[in-house]
């Protein structure tokens, strides 16, 4: 059975909620193979169970050129970079030494 966006030529089978509940595994097996069901309660459709969409392989590069990033995405502000390196804004580390290891 084709899984395109076509409407199936077979009508959806109606199944009562009690019958569906009593054999969920069997109905899911049929759905996996392309069947679809309308679950009814008191002759009213309460759910449609369609087959899953086709599981196509992911193709790397599909979105190439469609995603924009901020120009400063990989640029850290100096004060954040200093904090991550254990320094304060003046270039001294937490123990009062500058970047060369000399006391300030």
Describe the SSE topology:
Elements: E1 13-16, H1 17-22, H2 24-32, E2 37-41, E3 44-49, H3 78-84
| Secondary-structure element string | EHHEEH
> Strand-residue fraction?
5-15%
The total beta strand count reads 3
Multimer state: single chain
How would you state the average pLDDT, rounded? 79
Global shape: elongated
Which structural class do you get from the secondary structure elements?
alpha+beta
Main sheet properties: 3 strands, mixed
- Largest beta sheet: what is the strand line-up? 1-2-3
CA-based gyration radius? 31 Å
Which stretches are low in confidence, meaning pLDDT under 50 for 5 or more residues running? 1-9
Structure, explained:
By secondary structure, the protein is of the alpha+beta class. It is 21% helix and 14% strand. The chain has three helices and three strands, in the order βααββα. It has helices at residues 17-22, 24-32, 78-84, and strands at residues 13-16, 37-41, 44-49. The protein has a three-stranded mixed sheet with strand order 1-2-3. A hairpin with a 2-residue loop joins strand 2 (37-41) and strand 3 (44-49).
Keywords:
single chain, 104 residues, alpha+beta, three-stranded mixed beta sheet, elongated
Short description:
Helices cover 21% and strands 14% of the residues. With 104 residues, it is an alpha+beta fold.
